[in-house]
Design a protein that fits this description.
With 131 residues, the chain is α+β, with helices and mostly antiparallel strands. The protein has a single domain, classed as Yope Regulator, Chain: A. It contains five helices and six strands, in the order αβββαααββαβ. The longest helix is centred in the first third of the chain and has 16 residues. It is globular and about 45 Å long. This is ExsC. It holds the Pfam family CesT.
Length: 131
């Protein structure tokens, strides 16, 4: 089974367990979830690197202030302890939290645990990522 099929099977199982009608990667290998009507998580399959990347929107820079960059950089020095790191999306003005799952470790339990690390709880909707 190729990696895209494996991820789509996992996403379908996840969607079924939490009551979403469906969830799958689009033709670009992306999908998105919305948690509590405010926390967006984008899933991106990096097939050539054999991993699934999770990008969670934390907050807008207007909310956090520019001083947050120093704190984020400090946290990123310890990414190996948490398997997480922060970044900034200049297009949306949002601070993001990134996590990744290696294909060899991709199970439903691992996926749910990694989602939990991003601060996401119960999805309020699942949808394809809009252009």
């Amino acid at each position: 089974m190729d990696l895209t099929s494996k991820v789509n099977r996992l996403l379908a199982e996840f969607a079924g367990r939490i009551g979403l009608p469906s969830l799958s990667l689009d033709e670009e290998g992306m999908a998105s979830l919305l948690f509590d009507e405010q926390v967006g998580v984008t899933l991106l399959l990096l097939a050539e690197r054999e991993r699934l990347l999770l990008e969670a929107d934390v907050a807008g820079i207007d909310v956090l202030g520019e001083g947050i960059f120093r704190q984020l950089a400090s946290f990123n020095r310890h990414w190996h302890r948490f398997d997480l790191h922060f970044g900034f999306d200049e297009l949306t003005g949002k601070v993001q939290l990134y996590a990744q799952i290696l294909a060899a470790q991709l199970t439903l339990e691992c996926f749910k645990a990694t989602l939990g690390q991003t601060g996401s709880t119960t999805p309020s909707s699942g949808q394809r990522l809009l252009p």
